[in-house]
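Let us work through a complete example step by step.
Step 1: write down the sequence.
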Amino acid sequence: MYHELAELLAQALAEQGYEYSIRTMRLPNWMIKFGAFFSNELGSVAFLCDEPPRTLLNQKSRQELGIEYKRSVKELVLATAESMIN
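Step 2: predict the structure and record it as tokens.
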């Protein structure tokens, strides 16, 4: 999931002319867990290695609350990134 978001951001921001370096390389789980002993940054995400992939659904909010989402996830992620840049 996070890898796909990184690739999406890297591609979209490059198309718009931004020159930000977004890491899209995947590290093996053992390397992240080992690095967590030495880096607080890796330690804060190391627990994600053992979790199964998450599937997020908005079907319940659509049915019970009648919410209609007009923008795609891709549009929302890119808008968030742009607002953080500007």
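Step 3: interpret the result. DSSP finds five helices and no strands in the chain.
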